[in-house]
Amino acid sequence: MPDEDFDQDFYERIKAYEGRAAVTGGEGKDPVNEPMIRHWCEAMGDTGTGYPAVAPPTMLQVWTMGGLSGHTGRSAAYDELFALLDGAGFTSVVATDCEQEYLRPLRPGERVTFDAVVESVSPRKATKLGTGHFVTTRMDVRSEGGLAGTHRFRILKYAPARRTSKDRRPRPVINRDNAGFWEGVARHWLLIQRCGGCATLRFPWLPGCNSCGSAEWETVEASGAGTVYSYVVMHHPQFPAFSASDDASPGRAAPYAVGLIQLAEGVRVISNITGVPHDKVRIGMPVELEFLGVDEELTLPVFRSADHGEGGRG
User: Is the pTM here over 0.70, yes or no?
Assistant: First the structure.
């Protein structure tokens, strides 16, 4: 990495981009519309027969997305900043977090416009992924009714840290909100949160209930029974640490199946599907929980096919 004098000079160069426009006069590709609201609600698990007369606030960024064709109005300054970071060796990127502020609802038929600015560029930071700079972009979203909300999106542009072994399985990110879950996994328990206010079960772990807002909760141990709600088959990139889900090919990195598992308790969990070739995984296939000891430090909950039919294990 650069020495301290070079690093300070470089930081002053990239910090000069703070306050510069990233997008000016952006326009949403489509007006706020009921089909998009319906898709969003269904993806969030809202299976009610009716949908709200306004867009859910958390859809704020959706109306600004440009799709594969992108948007007009993007500033050259944003590309220049990224080119500087790439040229200094910070070639990798990861989204770290976002913040949203809601000021008024968006209703079907409204047209969305937006402007974005590079709000901040951090000094060089050392993280587990590697050393780099955090870049925060603020987007102001408007419609005919005025400012609807603000969306802040933060990424880390970093130089990947050297790994001691390319075969080491990546570690989960453990924080104060999910530490109890991983402590349970280490004891071979799959723990679900249950709200202390309305008794709603939730997963993944959250600090508060998304149904009633209560911060009180307790845990329930899942039975381990479930079905495949949806799945994808990973082909690339190939990581040696991820062995194939087909037990007949130990050590083969890909392809392998990653499933969205509907637990018997009603919540959904994302994990690997094992015990069956990847091309035999099917939606609705019954699965059962097992715990995979990856190494001396890491245990993961995975789901083995419980189907006694074609491709399954008895």
Answer: no
